[in-house]
Amino acid sequence: MKISLNALKQYVNMKVPVSELLTLIGSRLVEIEGTIDLSEKYKNIKIVKVAECEKIAGTHLSLCQIDAGTKELIQVVCGAPNVHRGMLAVWLAPGVIVPSTFGNENFKLGSKKLRGFESNGMLAAADELDFWPDHEGILEINPKDAKPGDSFAEIFDLNDIILDIENKSLTHRPDCFGLVGFAREVAGILGEEFTNPEYLFLGVSNKNSDNLKIEIKDSEICPRYSCAVLDASKLQEKSKYLQKSDIFLFKAGMRPVSPIVDLTNIIMLETGQPLHAFDYDKFASVGGAKIPQIIVRLANNDEELQLLDGKTIKCVPTDILITSNNVPVALAGAMGGANTEIDASTKKIILESATFSLYNLRKTQMEHGIFSEAITRFTKGQPAEQTSPVLREAIRRLDATPEVVADCYPAPGKLNIIKISTKEINSLLGSDYSIQTIVKTLENVNFSVYAPKIGHTPKLSLGKFAELQDDEIAIVAPSWRTDIFIKEDIVEEVGRLLGYDNIPLDFPTRPFIESKVDDTLVLKNKIRTILSDRLGANEVLSYSFVSEDLLSRANLDTENVYKIVNSISPELQCFRSSIVPSLIEKMRDNFKSGHNDFTLYEMNQISSKDFGCDADGVPIVKTSLAVALFGDFYTIKNITSQLFAELGLNLDIAPIDKHPYFEPLHSAVVSIDGTPVAYLGEIKKSVLRRFKVEKSLAVLEMNLESIKSSSANQTKQISFSKFPSVFRDLTLKVSADTDFAAVQHELMQVLDAKSLISSIQPVSIYQPESNLKTKNISFHLSFSNPNKTLDSQEISDIMEEINHKLSKTLGAEVV
After folding, report:
1. In 10 A of CB 607, how many CB atoms?
2. What's the sign of the alpha-carbon dihedral 230, 234, 238, 244?
3. Beta strands at 662-672 and 574-575: parallel, antiparallel or unpaired
4. 680-691 exposure pattern, b = at least 16 Cβ within 10 A, e = fewer
5. Is 143 in contact with 88 (CB distance < 8 Å)?
6. CA atoms of 81 and 60, how far apart (whole Å)
7. Whole-model pTM over 0.85
8. Cα 699 to Cα 668: distance, rounded to the nearest angstrom
9. Planar angle of CA 104, 110, 116, nearest 5 degrees
10. First to last CA, the chain
11. CA pair distance 623, 627, nearest whole angstrom
12. Average pLDDT over residues 182-207
């Protein structure tokens, strides 16, 4: 965004040097990416009169004698078709740098012969002056504006500095996308009271509105729609002369188009409120009615509209359309339709001033790739109270009497009165501002403030807070400050305008209290140590915001997740309900990069509508862990066992029948005290195909909130024996419906009853096709006595006890 310093000076009394002003703006409002000094660019350029002009035979050139305000005429050869005797033009004298090359090759003009005639410099066209790409002819100056010899820069206000603003940090400030709003902020920063243009408080009144109906289907998508019907017969004539308004547009990075379009653009640049003009007769014809009816509604899926740039778009349901009797004529806030375009035959126009949902328009912007000046401002949330005053001012500048004026405002906003004390402001800022300083700071930028302590009463009625404490004030933000809602917003406003760098550097006076240990952080650090340091896994961090498509590929319900209404991209629209889909993508990406044997894990927050909301209506989030590796159920179960053992948790595993992305026969649920805390298993083949993963993938997904709250979450002392361990391989034949976990549980009971230090590792499960009634489960056992070395008889007794116990409880047979 480009802001003219001279334009700011029309609203603000600049008491500081430019360099200091730029520093203040950068520290208290917005970053300035750079400045452009136009005075250097247009230095020594003169306005001249073409005193004589003759064609050079056999060429398109003309031999001109120009009057530059000196005693003698100067000869210049010019190739422009519109050069003629008596006109005022712009002359680049020998020694002047051509503006279009300024800052690059810096081409300096000289005197040279053309077709045998000496030519001193040149008469300039718009492109040579670096205004806009137009080389059809040289610029012509109105004799009423200048005389020969005048400085071009002085006459057209080009002794100016342009501020190049980094506007991304102003996303929440629609008022600053207009010159008036930006100037208001500069005044506040300089401690000056700002006087608004009167027209900002003078709206239109309905006139013959029965001749133009407006219907807003949903005030959420269009809070207000104001428009007027004007005679355009006298508004279409474009002057042949360079206008000062053309230079105003040039400084903002725009170019003149036509009188009506230029005026709407100028008012938009001044106020931040975009305007749009429709051809009235075309508008009525499209809708097939004598009296046009403007209907603002959401688009139907795949509804088509040809835009002014010739492109035909297919609408999506979040697009907002302006329709004539339900026939689309404009993509609201973005671009008008070709079917109501103003042209030379236009007799009457409908001039629109409206505001639309910034959330819908952000989606429209991304969906259709439209990044115009208008939609840039609409996506910041233009205030509804501004549409009517801006429309009134546009009508005044067009010097036209409206035939019809209509204003539809279904749900006017209510005053938001904020009550705060000076003590609260100073306590949060660490400052010592007086109530007088705070009141003046806020009123400089047009806040209404009621401060009974100093006998200060605003123009607005604030009866709701007539009873205030001694140092309390009641505040109402102006309508254009759509970012002010709570006390902290007021505190921030005071601190920002007075300068955070002016707050004394001092230590807080309140006592230091040791912060409470975060149980979740402690648990995450434990898990990180186990997985990264001991098991060699790699931690990753992926976006918490994902696409609907990513969740759908993992069979997750996209209707059960929270969606971001103003997401910057469809790829970042949903707050994920599981880390697993993101982790599958990362496994695939690393595999494609040539990595085969690795384990990834991530600890992050998830949320879903099933979790509910807290007392303040904020969605509840939970911390989750996901671990992924290429392998089968037993590989991930081994990691799960080690993780739980290190955390001091008992592993209670049971099969699961149904899950969105786990294979039913190769997955399990882990419970603690009967509460499910984790799921593990192999990812379904159908899910892997959607993610284009070719290898078997196994995942552990754990709810850390449940782990943290478990009474079993204690540090467990791991016992070691100084005596040798015994290793045995054991295969048991059991019935086909016997759970693996049940067998393992019985084994553990026997070994624990003997007070042995033991470990049980699963080896395999085998079920022959010839006998589906039984299966063989193999284990690798390791056990030792903490007090002595086991002899052969004791080892035989232990193995016999295992055989007897499992035969009795499970009907198992040692193979």
Report:
1. 20
2. negative
3. unpaired
4. bbbbbeebbebb
5. yes
6. 8
7. no
8. 11
9. 130
10. 81
11. 14
12. 90
